[in-house]
């Protein structure tokens, strides 16, 4: 198994249960790539990989100037594809990348995401 070249924070104790997501064996490359095909979602994953300050992050941490409904859609697409794991903390959902799961199924994929250069605004 390949080790990811970016920091992976240890899981804190007493985490809420994750929201529904595919099991590692159910991760499908075409579904993961479909979720990552949107530049905003690719940027979310890249930021999580390269700039995480904590185990997981709320939507506000990303600094995205988009309507809440749009962000909800993008974060849900990433979770349902198996790219991120989300947990409910009261009224907010926080996300992190499923690094170990994705590296186990698709070695090197996250390195490509981390190396991606976002388009100029």
TrEMBL record:
Residue ranges constituting the HTH arsR-type domain according to the UniProt record: 31-111
SMART domains from the UniProt entry: HTH_ARSR (SM00418)
TM stretches of this protein: none
Protein name, UniProt field: Helix-turn-helix transcriptional regulator
């Amino acid at each position: 198994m390949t080790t990811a070249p970016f920091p992976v924070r240890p899981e804190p104790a007493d985490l809420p249960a994750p929201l529904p997501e595919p099991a590692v064996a159910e991760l499908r490359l075409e579904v993961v790539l479909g979720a990552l095909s949107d530049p905003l979602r690719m940027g979310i994953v890249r930021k999580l990989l390269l700039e995480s300050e904590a185990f997981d992050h709320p939507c506000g941490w990303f600094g995205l100037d988009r309507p809440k409904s749009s962000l909800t859609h993008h974060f849900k697409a990433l979770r349902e594809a198996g790219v991120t794991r989300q947990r409910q903390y009261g009224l907010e959902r926080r996300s992190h990348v499923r690094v170990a799961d994705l590296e186990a199924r698709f070695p090197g994929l996250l390195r490509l995401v981390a190396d991606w250069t976002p388009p100029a605004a």
